[in-house]
Design brief:
Quinone Oxidoreductase, Chain A, domain 1; globular; 17 strands; alpha/beta; six-stranded parallel β-sheet; 12 helices; Rossmann fold; homodimer
Chain lengths: 338, 338
């Protein structure tokens, strides 16, 4: 059994500080220990920021193994393990256990068992992006069928899941994207996922455009914001009185600018969502298990589609991080292990 | 009985559109009607904005009588009135009934009876400013004794009540004010009301100053914002993780600018408070009656002091509004009727 991991001993650029190192998983499992073999582990933007040392989530100690999400198969279990069987497909329950590794030994309570038939590429990415979309649509505003939601970054990793889940739950979505040469292609793609309206940042500033849409779907009670800056303010302008904006990203690197009247006269609420905090508070809570099971089920029924992912090998990590850092690709990279 | 009111038939500057007009209160009261004689009615900034037509609260019809708050004495009651007696001190329950008037006839349910011994100058102003401070300290964060609150506009009409109520409830206050020639005098005044710390907008930007204060009282769980702009952002920087900022004004006329990390990593919440909305939803609710009774009680025990008010006559309204509009005075003007 050849075992390797991508580990780092200091903060820095992933391509520089990560090293492929041999690891030695315990041969004899004690008590509640579980040995797993990773199948697929994605590279999320937060993983890169963690390695750079600029993310609030820090590794417990060095050397640390990179990666936060992933799906694995159980190879062996310790004598006291009750809820996990050899062959189970599992994901790690805590954050930042290190998933860019061929093998890992953790204890029983550190894993959540998924349906054996789940698509590994979906399972590997289930907690962060689909989970964030699911929670933001569920936890902040009591949405009813026919209600509308506005979101910017409509084509973001979370945005495409929000579109799909909203469609499944009969919630209308108004999706804002940046203008680009292939904007009509992107519009078509998001509509094929279930988006009701796809508008550029310029279009949502046009009163006549938005008046017509809002006359059909009503003012959104919920806004999802991963952009900040002018685009966030523009979304707030259309929010229903008493509505909530949930901020989960700041891709423009600009702050959220909110007019006073929005707070006082429109009774808008502004909150944030961070999956790392939610997962920590709900590691193996019934709420989390229910969500993961629902999401897996929807994916296996082909109702929840994974956006484009590119499978890469651990061995090629230097090139992969170079490509990601250059920003040449919006696709999601996933390490897959044979 | 000579009866007059300050009324307006169109939106505009108060000094121009308001007119002192004779009114004829009903001589024979029917059913649940109540005739009151006003004792004192303050001029709030929102009253001026209402007359200008720039406030979300609009008069039901024209001509409209100005004024939103005030205390009155009951002169006569209709045959079906049960809960109100002649001689009672009352305040209007709904917003914008028109209080800049010597007399008014409304129905029983439109009045709330206060303790007969309440100071009329306090009673006249009880709903808006002390009420706003009370609700913001009670309704958004579960504060415990020893917790701290940060507020800007510490010397605002609401701010001085927040200082006093917090002191009574054993909540520490960090109060931010604008620098000014007589800043030390203002510091002393606010400390005499119970302020724990009074800092200028420049001082809260100094790490060493704030570090020392926060080491003593802990990071505030609640921030009250009536300024916006840079000062609001600076207050948010000191807010405890999971803390809430309540915006109830925007005196700088600048929006509230919030860094993305504040939402995501610090789990800050940003909401607004508008007493007009709260009062509408709680016109004669037990919550409101309890609050008014507590505030009256505290005032009669000299534990809750009214900031400086200037008593003026209805006849002098043109000069009064001229002075207010010129911004020459920060004092509160109150119409008093003999």
């Amino acid at each position: 059994m050849s075992s390797f991991a991508l580990a780092y001993e200091r903060f820095g650029e992933p391509g520089e500080v990560l090293q492929k190192v041999p690891i030695q998983p315990e041969r004899t499992l004690k008590n509640s220990q579980v040995l797993v073999k990773y199948i697929a582990s994605p590279i999320n933007p937060a993983d890169i920021n963690t390695i750079q040392g600029v993310y609030p989530l820090k590794p417990a100690s060095f050397p640390a193994i990179g990666g936060n999400e992933g799906v694995a198969e159980v190879l062996r279990i310790g004598p006291n393990v009750k809820s996990i069987q050899v062959g189970d497909k599992v994901i790690p329950a805590p954050a930042a256990t290190g998933t860019w590794t061929t093998h890992r030994v953790l204890t029983e309570k550190d894993f959540i068992v998924l349906d054996k038939n789940v698509d590994p590429l979906f399972a590997a990415q289930i907690t962060v992006n689909p989970g964030t979309a699911y929670r933001m649509l569920q936890d902040f505003v009591k949405l009813q069928e026919g209600d509308s939601v506005i979101q910017n970054g409509g084509n973001s990793a979370v945005g495409v899941y929000a579109i799909q889940l909203a469609k499944l739950w009969n919630i209308k979505t108004i999706n804002v994207i940046r203008d680009r040469p292939d904007v009509d292609e992107l519009r078509q793609y998001l509509k094929s996922l279930g988006a009701d309206y796809v508008l550029t940042e310029e279009e949502i500033r046009k009163k006549e455009v938005m008046d017509e849409i809002l006359s059909k779907v009503g003012k959104p009670k919920l806004a999802l914001n991963c952009v900040g800056g002018q685009c966030a303010t523009d979304c707030v302008r259309h929010l229903a009185d008493g509505g909530t904006m949930v901020t989960y990203g700041g891709m423009s690197k600009k702050p959220v600018v909110l007019p006073t009247g929005s707070f006082i006269f429109k009774d808008h609420r502004f909150v944030g969502f961070w999956m790392t905090r939610w997962s920590k508070a709900n590691q193996t809570s019934p709420k989390r298990i229910k969500m993961l099971s629902e999401l897996s089920q929807l994916n296996s029924e082909k109702k929840l589609i994974i956006p484009k992912t590119i499978q890469v090998k651990l061995d090629d990590y230097k090139e992969v991080f170079e490509t990601i850092q250059k920003g040449f690709s919006n696709s999601k990279y996933v390490f897959t292990f044979e």
